[in-house]
Amino acid sequence: MPIKNFLKITPFAKSSHSGEGLLNGRTIFGPGELDSPLKFINYTEMPPGSSIGLHTHKNDEEVYIILEGTGLARIDGQDTEVEPGDTILNKPFGEHALYNTGRGALKVLIFKVVND
């Protein structure tokens, strides 16, 4: 189906890259649905105090778009506060993490592209 409402997709709770707490994720489009190097598009709600743990990917590239909430992005050892509208580019082989430092949920769209 080429049109999905990500707010109506049933969420799944999971830890991400050994981060703190459980995140509520929804896969909007995943493997088998996309005809491009785009691997997935996820919507993730991170409760206060939770995180996507510090990790690296191989030749993959990820983009995080902050929709709501505040947090801290760590990219290649540099910490930057993030807020709605911020778009984070995680380059291939780069180290990155995302922490919810706010009082409410940190809501994020995540796009992952696999480079050959």
Number of strands: 10
Shape annotation: globular
Order of helices and strands: EEEEEEEEEE
User: Mind summarizing the main beta sheet?
Assistant: 6 strands, antiparallel
Helix content: under 10%
* Low-pLDDT stretches: none
Gyration radius from CA atoms, angstroms: 14 Å
Task: Describe what is shown at a glance.
The chain is mostly beta strands. The chain is 0% helix and 54% strand.
State the main characteristics.
0% helix; 116 residues; globular; mainly beta
Explain what the structure shows.
The protein has 116 residues and is mainly beta. It has a domain of 60 residues. 0% of the residues lie in helices and 54% in strands. Strands 1-2-3-10-5-8 form a 6-stranded antiparallel β-sheet, with no helix packed on it. The chain has a 4-stranded antiparallel β-sheet with strand order 4-9-6-7, with no helix packed on it. The model has no long low-confidence stretch (mean pLDDT 96).
